[in-house]
């Protein structure tokens, strides 16, 4: 593990864009519309660094979702849990 | 053993297995096919133990659902990106598995990564973390969260942006060497 969560890393615009895309893909119930999907695909195609950084952002999103909640929040699967 | 909640309580693994059919439904609702749902369940099962070492899991079945849903949504995201990539950019290869299949977070130690993320979330004001969890884990809209917390939707939007910005600083946890 690198300990360099330094400012340079955080200000990397590629990382910021990748993280914003992953957040946007998971925001709300809907999928990206066709225009946004095309925009993302083109951004990914433009540079291998974009693809690698996007994969990192997706991994971080996945890790965040595994942290148990600190608060007693309802489960979206409550209707299943009731069965 | 890592999975145990207390000496008498069933382990997360036991809860998972006892509720496999329900968890399968949760996964299949998102990924659509039974085969993919099976894959999701296998993947999620392997990831259960880390969470229990981060903080107390007060609702074991709820946590199992959370991990299954998390992996399933990632599979779904991955397949949508792949599909649109093929549509718009068929001249370039996009070779990357769903991120849940990637090794790095395991090499690094999923447990340490989760502890680090938990610290980042814990450093936020408690209400900000609550808003974030209601959005990310419960799937509530910002408007629904505002009603629940008795504040404006604008404030909820700011709180979720704050949480996202804090998490953005965690790149080092997933960065390729």
Automatic annotation (TrEMBL), chain B:
GO terms for biological process: DNA-templated transcription initiation. Residues 115-162 form the RNA polymerase sigma factor 70 region 4 type domain. It comes from the Bacteria. Keywords: Sigma factor, Transcription, Transcription regulation. Coiled coil: none annotated. Gene3D superfamilies: 1.10.1740.10, Winged helix-like DNA-binding domain superfamily/Winged helix DNA-binding domain (1.10.10.10). Residues 18-79 form the RNA polymerase sigma-70 region domain. GO terms for molecular function: DNA binding; sigma factor activity. InterPro entries: RNA_pol_sigma-70-like, RNA_pol_sigma-70_dom, RNA_pol_sigma70_r2, RNA_pol_sigma70_r4_t2, RNA_pol_sigma_r2, RNA_pol_sigma_r3/r4-like, WH-like_DNA-bd_sf. Belongs to the sigma-70 factor family. ECF subfamily. This is RNA polymerase sigma-70 factor (ECF subfamily). It comes from Variovorax boronicumulans.
């Amino acid at each position: 593990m690198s300990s360099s969560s330094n400012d340079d890393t955080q200000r990397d615009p590629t990382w910021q864009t990748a993280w914003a895309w992953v957040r946007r893909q998971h925001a709300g119930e809907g999928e990206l519309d066709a225009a946004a999907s095309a925009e993302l695909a083109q951004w990914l195609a433009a540079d291998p660094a974009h693809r690698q950084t996007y994969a990192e952002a997706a991994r971080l999103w996945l890790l965040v979702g595994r942290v148990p909640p600190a608060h007693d929040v309802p489960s979206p699967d409550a209707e299943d849990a009731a069965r | 053993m890592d999975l145990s909640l207390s000496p008498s309580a069933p382990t997360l693994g036991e809860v998972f297995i006892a509720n496999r059919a329900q968890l399968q439904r949760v996964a299949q609702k998102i990924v659509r096919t039974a085969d993919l749902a099976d894959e999701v369940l296998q993947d999620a099962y392997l990831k259960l133990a880390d969470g229990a070492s981060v903080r107390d899991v007060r609702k074991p079945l709820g946590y199992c659902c959370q991990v299954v849903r998390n992996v399933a949504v990632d599979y779904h995201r991955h397949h949508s990106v792949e599909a649109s990539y093929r549509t718009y950019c068929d001249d370039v290869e996009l070779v990357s598995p769903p991120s849940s299949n990637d090794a790095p977070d395991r090499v690094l130690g999923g447990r340490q990564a989760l502890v680090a993320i938990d610290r980042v979330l814990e450093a936020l004001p408690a209400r900000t973390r609550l808003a974030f969890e209601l959005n990310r884990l419960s799937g509530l809209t910002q408007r629904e969260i505002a009603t629940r917390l008795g504040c404006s939707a604008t404030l909820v939007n700011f709180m979720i942006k704050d949480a996202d910005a804090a998490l953005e600083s965690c790149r080092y946890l997933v960065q390729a060497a």
